[in-house]
Write a structure and sequence with these properties.
Layout (H helix, E strand, L loop, with lengths): L1 E7 L21 E4 L2 H15 L5 E7 L11 E3 L5 H11 L9 E5 L5 H9 L5 H8 L6 E5 L2 H4 L3 E2 L1
Parallel strand pairs: 4-5
Antiparallel strand pairs: 1-3, 2-6, 3-7, 5-6
Helix pairs in contact: 2-4, 3-4
Length: 156
């Protein structure tokens, strides 16, 4: 079991995928970090953007062996690659049609939208895009995009 963290401007009692924003790195879903400080920074940011609430980190236990379970559609990016960058680009543009229950991979840098735009305008190559999207600490994010995957999280 590992502990994963979700940062928000409110505590999460019940995960509702309908409240999740679209066009995120791995699509519309519930995102968690494997480093509590990363979730805290997201909570502070989310509170500032919303203009209400208090920074709150909610913790969940997750059995990582489920990433190998045949009943779940799982995509794991172990490091930033061209496939990872193109996957993020497609999701942020709303073009990705393949649905995964769980996606695990590096968190893209905060300047991701700027870098994706540079790539789309052919100002940088795909190789440079990958290098620019690398988050400096290479924190991993966990995406849970279906009710089946959400059911595998245990609130702590």
């Amino acid at each position: 079991m590992i502990t994963l963290y979700h940062g928000s401007n409110v505590g999460i009692d019940l995960i509702c995928l309908d409240k999740c924003s679209p066009f995120k790195d791995f699509g519309r879903g519930f995102y968690l970090a494997d480093i509590e400080e990363q979730a805290w920074q997201m909570a502070v940011r989310r509170t500032r953007i919303a203009g209400e609430g208090e920074p709150t980190v909610t913790s969940y236990a997750f059995d990582e062996s489920l990433l190998e379970h045949p009943s779940l559609r799982v995509k794991v990016f172990t490091e930033p690659t061209e496939e990872w960058a193109l996957f993020i680009l497609a999701n942020r543009k709303g073009l990705e049609t393949q649905q995964f229950d769980i996606v695990v991979g590096p968190i893209a840098d905060d300047g991701v939208a700027f870098q994706l735009e540079r790539y789309l305008k052919h100002l940088i190559t795909l190789e440079v895009l990958v290098q620019e999207l690398v988050y400096r600490k290479l924190n991993r994010q966990y995406f849970f995009g279906t009710e089946l995957s959400i059911s595998k999280l245990l609130k702590l």
